[in-house]
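Appendix B, example 12.
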Amino acid sequence: MAFIQRIKALRHELWLLFWRKMPLKKNKVILWSDNFKTFGCSPKYIALELAKSGQWDVVWVLERGKAVPEVPGMRFVPYFSMKYLKEIATAKFIVCNHRTSAYHYFKKRKGQVYIQTWHSSLRLKMIEKDAPMLPQSYVDTAKADSRKIDLLLSGCRFSSEIFRRAFWYDGQILEQGTPRCDGLFGDGSAVKEKVYSFYGIEPGKKLALYAPTFRDDPGYSYGLDFDAFAKALGTDWVVGCRLHPKFDGKNLEGAIPMSGYPDMQELLIACDRLVTDYSSSMFDMAVAGKQCCLFVPDLAAYTAGDRGLYFDIRKLPFPVAEDMQSLCRLDFDAYEERRLAFLAQIGSFENGHAAENVVKWMQSAN
């Protein structure tokens, strides 16, 4: 199998040589998210904004075998295909939310524009050069990727400072918000109805979503008692749980399993309260003006390890619980005041029009 893959990779390189001699298509945009695994995050919302106008050739890349959504004005191609090579070699604009490497077959041509959205509006855990003990192989890949970037998107002043200091990047930063956060503004009733219908949740119920961050240890036990939590919330609430796909087999008795839902942002729009631990989704909830709390039974061990954090968790606006008893008794009396103060502290740029502003920038760059 490895030999066959090497032969295919060599074939791909030869086809790239051919397609790279073809003219760039000024109105063509190729996008992907999470290394071709999802139709989501900021690239999705940029793609939808592009597709609305009918003036762009919008190409989305997905791994083979992934469900392909039907989106008017958008084409879908499989990764590691001849079509993918043609599109990435002839598109004027390349948009993604993760580092690119040899795996992506993206050899930037003169005239191509690479927009890096990154995958959060703000992070709790340190990233890139700020993060302790990065493998040298990753550093080399990240530096090479940053040399190709023409535009980085920033959701707040604090993120811009991180990018300037730690991203090995000194190019342009568009400080006009995070496209994946746009849906958190305005009327989200249609998305809420969509999610509720998907899971058969009774209209009128409130949704509490438990969505912890990924853990390196697949045997880690998150320690949340769904039955006790649901009882504390009361009969007006239902509890959902979204874990990383590697943790799908865990017992979620007492919660609606939501790990398979394709777009985390839609779950955030639909939920009334988020319970997380160290996930950057907490900051999306702050932007949305929705309740968020942190359940961190391993706080001492987590912060004593080699993970650097940008913030002291207890100084964030979110109520903190280290055990189930505390989680079931949390109150949000001071939350709104603390939330607004935090958004002012980080200098938030979010206004619900980030994707629209990215498209305007692309039009000006074309």
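The first strand starts at residue 25 and ends at 31. The chain has two domains: 2-182+351-365, 187-346.
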